[in-house]
Amino acid sequence: MATLLRSVARQGRFIATAAVRRQIPACFISTSNKKKDVVSHTDVTPMESPKSEELKQLEKHFANDDPDDLQNWVPFGFHDIDRDLDRFLKNMTMFFFITVGICGAGFILAYQPDHKLQDWSVREAYLELERRERNGLPLIDRNMLDPATVELPSDEELGNTEVII
To answer: For residues 125 and 139, what is the distance between their CA atoms, to the nearest angstrom?
Structure first.
């Protein structure tokens, strides 16, 4: 917890830069007028030409393979400008979604109450069997209700209704 608070305290620029979200546009439009019926030759050797200034800069740029250098930083997608904030937001997002989300959901599913009352009905059945054994009653009684208290409809009320026993 102390590490979390320390990391949050170090990110003082978070509130100031939270609204600054740079969107990188992506246009996947091909402007090439190459045609598939044009034959290309792969055995042609390129001509030696003096290196242009742009090629020299690119070679210098890609010669640097130090992963800690700011030029070689590839953002995780949470912040495009600040490397530390990007890593912090990635770690916090993974912590909350993976640890709290999955483990918390598993905890809730494991300890949720018995909604269908299956455990209750089994427990109640065992208690009723134990009570009947203790009182010397049969385990299953034919007359669960007292027949004198049950009011059945008369034949006139039933009419043509079929009674299945």
So the answer is: 11
